């Protein structure tokens, strides 16, 4: 029995933000029915290569992208443009706790699947809408995509090399972080509404916008502007509020140093053979190091060139200085810490007995995440789920 066992989710969303939320719920035991278009399904089924290999090592038509965000769900093909399909979806919503959708604003109402319509037949329904810009405001009707919103929401303005450096210019994050964070906020909002329902007995409507989430997750950068009055700029791999907290070039590549307090800085410069810097009034405190970064960082960088990555990292580890390599993704999944934390899982798929996926990072002591169902094949559970509807209608 998972932590969310007993919750039923009707997932009308596609691509990433909504499916990320429903996958999180499924990992902890919620029953998730993923509704897909007949024949084509979720757009991400075709977002490849790469595609999952079958038991013989041959590629299938199941994309790696789709597999990353749809485990634990039942796939049901329903044509919501048809009267029959709309009735089937309303019947599923009658028995559901949660609905997740990412139609354009007003899109669900065309099918009678908006919150007001479904709450009328199921007042306990918790209904989460995910859009680019929210349900109101001057841009509400416009479509929104992660890349677009990373740019509009300011994230790209603080990501990338600083002006004047090689390769300078705004950059998007290497994964669709706005979509993923929106999925996580959706999960939080849904579970908050579930808890409130214990008191009120009623569901409620959740309005989530990618742009809002991007603004919220600017975190200290937003606060630096709102409280400090200065617009943040790109600093490459440096930190706006902590120095040194960045990458350095070493004799054979790069490594990261993440000095978070003054005692760590003292140990760091001792390892470098520059212990006198910790006594210098310009560098003794983090505040002074931030103000004087342009003078300090070149001193550190010159010394970092004296040795290779692994030698520096061994010396930093011995001295208790936070530092690490810049791993490639293959190195990440070969890392002993990732292996020890069981962040790779194998799930049996109808076409691949040992499909490897990334685990949920939440480690719960009594009700851990479980991976009962693989990412479903298109329409794999249509007959099963619709047969259950018929049984309910027949009183069986």
UniProtKB/TrEMBL annotation:
GO molecular function, one term: transferase activity
InterPro entries: CoA-transferase_III_domain, CoA-Trfase_fam_III, CoA-Trfase_III_dom3_sf, CoA-Trfase_III_dom_1_sf
A Pfam family this chain is assigned to: CoA_transf_3
EC number: 2.8.3.19
Entries under Gene3D superfamilies matching the protein: Crotonobetainyl-coa:carnitine coa-transferase, domain 1 (3.40.50.10540), formyl-coa transferase, domain 3 (3.30.1540.10)
Class in the EC hierarchy, top level: transferase
Key words, A-Z: Transferase
Protein name (Swiss-Prot/TrEMBL): Acetyl-CoA:oxalate CoA-transferase
